[in-house]
């Protein structure tokens, strides 16, 4: 992240969201991050931010939109559930914690530095979550969980 490109707190939210998106795409591609690792980092952030938004909404007697509260739907192309292999605990032992920490730091830094509102950050991360869940659901084995996340050209 170059200092002169970081949107200011006065920049439009769309500019801040685009900055987050561009930096995440660059990092995930540069590090060939496995889909399982990206998914775990996204899950952590989304859970924390949605919890915080729910608390604030409850205090204001407001209702959050469904696309903020819940995962976006995915299309599952393969309904066979014949995934054998490792336990979740074993998979979590294999993930590269350092690589996940780098993505975690990038997300946190961009959100804080640009003062990106949580609502907008959740929307930005939900599209990533949807893509990761789609790729995870089509994995036919444990090895595919550790395949690099495949980002579409227009993503």
What does this structure look like?
This protein has 155 residues and is mainly alpha-helical. The chain has one domain. The chain has helices at 13-30, 35-59, 66-69, 88-94, 97-114, 118-137, 142-145. Helix 1 (13-30) packs antiparallel against helix 5 (97-114) and helix 2 (35-59) packs parallel to helix 5 (97-114). The longest helix is centred in the first third of the chain and has 25 residues, at 35-59. The chain is globular and about 45 Å long. The chain starts with 12 loop residues before the first helix and ends in a 10-residue tail after the last helix.
Describe what is shown at a glance.
This protein has 155 residues and is an all-alpha fold. It is built from seven helices and no strands.
Terminal CA distance:
19 Å
Number of domains: 1
Q: Quickly give the structural class.
A: mainly alpha
Q: What's the shape?
A: globular
H and E string: HHHHHHH
**Strands, total number:** 0
Discrete helix count: 7
Rg (C-alpha, Å): 16 Å
Q: Indicate the percent of residues in helices.
A: 55-70%
Largest sheet: none
Low-confidence stretches: none
Strand residues, percent:
under 5%
- Overall pLDDT score: 90
